[in-house]
Amino acid sequence: MAGHSKWANIKHKKSKEDEKRGKIFSKLSRKITVAGRQGGGDPETNSELRLAIQKAKDNNMPNDNIDRAIKRGTGDLEGFNYESFIYEGYGPGGVALYIELMSDNRNRTASEIRHILTKNGGNLGEQGCVSWMFSRKGQIIINPDEAGADAEELMLLAIDCGAEDFTEEDGIYTIYTSPADLENVREGLEEEGITLSSVDIAMIPQNTVALDERAAKKVLRLMEALEDHDDVQEVYSNFDIPEEIMEAVSE
Predict the structure, then answer these.
(1) Potential cystine with 74: which of 41, 192, 220, 249 (Cβ 3.0-4.6 Å)?
(2) Which domains does the chain have, with CATH numbers?
(3) What average pLDDT score do residues 98-123 get?
């Protein structure tokens, strides 16, 4: 693939802090609720719900929380009426931003996201202004220390299972699939005893923009501010940070 998701690698390498777990559960709960409302409460016939439930389990979300989220989506329990939508825009250094959100108050969310962007050197753009720069793909992230196979073995196994691409960067293995093949590849890898760190549908940049140290600091600050917002589900960008600069901004 022409591009890669630098932010996905950075997020994966950050340790999950206990105080943020409640926020992670809240976002996952919204995802399950919306998926259940849109496609029904049976994960066997609702692939979006099935993926959301699996992501929740990957993050050790309790089964009771998952069940309540499904029931809120199907109307069996009262809850907020969340809607999902996309914002697109630009960050420092001209990087593209593709932001997936879920909110019960779109006007409030728009104001708050616009404030975060303005404060951190970014701005909202028109719908479609950056989406063409990304491709929707299945994305499987694997920690080499937990993989159960070396890079070459894993690459061949992933391709045999139906993967489109395999990359090794920043000490992380990433496997890309078509969205339709994601579950088959996941199941094939797990049947071979491979430990998977993250499995999701993601927006992968077709090309990347290299950042200098100053722009890298600004972009990382912006990405973290956006990710910290309760209504933001995922943020995708097309930035790349050279290894020597990444070491400098991480100090």
Answers:
(1) 41
(2) 6-74 (1.10.10.200), 84-132+216-250 (3.30.70.980), 135-205 (3.30.70.980)
(3) 96
